[in-house]
């Protein structure tokens, strides 16, 4: 099981801020998780499209597509940050 | 070092006074105060909301401050960043750095702001007469953060 | 723009608050606060006295601020510099710069401090256990001022 | 007539902060004024020695040895500045 969080534009567009997921075997990395979520269709496909500047953090550290997903991981998808 | 993420406003002068009180080795305090502008990208901003990622935000800010301390000979740093609804002229962020001499304090303060802008998970949504809109990341912020790599 | 040379102390927070009050175009305020250190060049400083050249000092500061305004897209600048007897932890100088975005405010604020250090006629005399001594100009201050020529 | 001011270390060492002077013909520049004052001997000679880092302002603008001295000028001698 992993926890997936969505922030800002993604949270609004996807209509959820958090979900518990049990990805199938074969979803072992951030990139594979994004592919799997994209297959849901609709806004999932457009918001997580490869050309969208989506950032991902795993256990609150910035991650890249090949970052592995430990069991129980907290994975967050969000747009480039705009604080300050 | 101290990092705070809060909805409440802060008293800039009182924060700086407490930050340096009773520390006679401090010769320099460089500080930055970020404020809500009523105009951004030609649209009139009536209100904005700052969203963040609780937990990761504090962690990211602490890492940025720790990196600044590793790079420059500074005594201390303070970061206060607000979240929630904000209006024009409201305070958003305070960064203060103390050191013996000014060069280190200036550099570390600007470094912390540049990295905060690109690495700390905050997102701004502005309310304009045309409706709400998420602020896009600025390319100039990426450039500002990148230049520290060369040093 | 405002330049003040005075014996009296100033309220850093109140000065910054007044400096930006009611100006919703300001997105960034970079500021510097210079303080008396109890140690300088390995000697314990109990008190210092700042002497200046009345008239020329204000003129030099105004020229420095005007030059900063010509170089960067900033809204305003404030310089307050104290003279007379000062003790460790006392405030010496405040420089604040406001702008729409942070890069300009940081650069102009540091520029004003670097030029102030090399061009404004102030002289420090420190009282140490070994007696009074005039502070020598620092070579690093000349270097700090020189680097702005290249830009 | 010109007014000559001394600040900081020079003021203390020379024992004066201000004097009115009528330099002789031939003293038309900052450098010539310094030469003439140096001829007074004692601390004047050491404080205004060519290898000392003395700065000069004429009418409150920084000057160099070849800056001309207008009639009625305010000329200030002082060490390199150390404010801030």
In brief:
Chain A is of the alpha+beta class and 84 residues long. Chain A has helices at residues 8-14, 30-38, 43-47, and strands at 2-6, 18-21, 55-58, 61-63, 74-78.
How does this model look, in words?
Chain A is α+β, with helices and mostly antiparallel strands and 84 residues long. Chain A has a domain at 8-61. Helices cover 25% and strands 25% of the residues of chain A. Chain A is built from three helices and five strands, in the order βαβααβββ. Chain A has helices at 8-14, 30-38, 43-47; strands spanning 2-6, 18-21, 55-58, 61-63, 74-78. Chain A has a five-stranded mixed β-sheet. With 151 residues, chain B is α+β, with helices and mostly antiparallel strands. Chain B has four helices and ten strands; from the N terminus they run E-H-E-E-E-E-H-E-E-E-H-E-E-H. In chain B, the strands form three sheets. A four-stranded mixed β-sheet of chain B has the order 1-6-8-2, with helices on both faces. In chain B, strands 7-5-9-10 form a four-stranded antiparallel β-sheet, with no helix packed on it. In chain B, helix 2 (56-71) runs antiparallel to helix 3 (102-119) and helix 3 crosses helix 4. Classes of the chains: A alpha+beta (84), B alpha+beta (151). Chains in contact: A-B, B-C, C-D. Strand 2 of chain B pairs antiparallel with strand 2 (28-35) of chain C.
Oligomer: heterotetramer
Share of residues in helices of chain A: 25-40%
What is the residue-mean pLDDT of chain A, rounded to a whole number? 96
SSE ordering of chain A: EHEHHEEE
Helix and strand composition category of chain A: alpha+beta
Helices and strands in order, then pairings?
The complex is a heterotetramer, with two copies of chain A (84 residues) and two copies of chain B (151 residues).
Chain A lengths: L1 E5 L1 H7 L3 E4 L8 H9 L4 H5 L7 E4 L2 E3 L10 E5 L6
Parallel strand pairs in A: 1-5
Antiparallel strand pairs in A: 1-2, 3-4, 3-5
Chain B lengths: L1 E5 L5 H9 L7 E8 L3 E2 L2 E2 L2 E6 L3 H16 L4 E7 L1 E3 L4 E9 L2 H18 L2 E7 L2 E4 L4 H8 L5
Parallel strand pairs in B: 1-6
Antiparallel strand pairs in B: 2-8, 3-4, 5-7, 5-9, 6-8, 9-10
Helix pairs in contact in B: 2-3, 3-4
């Amino acid at each position: 099981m992993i926890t997936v969080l969505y922030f800002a534009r993604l949270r609004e567009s996807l209509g959820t801020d958090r979900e518990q997921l049990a990805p199938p075997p074969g979803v072992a990395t951030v990139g594979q998780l994004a592919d799997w979520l994209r297959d849901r269709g609709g806004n999932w496909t457009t918001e997580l499209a490869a050309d969208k500047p989506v950032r991902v953090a795993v256990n609150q550290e910035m991650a890249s597509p090949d970052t592995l997903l430990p069991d129980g991981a907290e994975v967050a998808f969000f747009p480039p940050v705009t604080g300050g | 070092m101290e990092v705070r993420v809060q909805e409440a406003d802060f008293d800039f002068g009182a924060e700086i006074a407490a930050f340096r009180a009773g520390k006679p080795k401090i010769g320099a305090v460089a500080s930055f105060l970020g404020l809500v502008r009523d105009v951004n990208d030609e649209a009139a901003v009536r209100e904005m909301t700052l969203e963040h990622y609780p937990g990761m935000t504090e962690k990211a800010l602490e890492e940025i401050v720790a990196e600044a301390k590793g790079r420059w000979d500074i005594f201390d740093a303070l970061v206060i960043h607000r979240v929630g609804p904000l209006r024009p002229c409201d305070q958003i962020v305070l960064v203060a750095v103390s050191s013996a001499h000014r060069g280190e304090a200036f550099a570390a303060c600007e470094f912390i702001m540049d990295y905060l802008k690109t690495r700390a998970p905050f997102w701004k949504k502005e309310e304009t007469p045309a409706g709400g809109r998420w602020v896009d990341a600025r390319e100039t912020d990426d450039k500002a953060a990148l230049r520290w790599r060369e040093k």
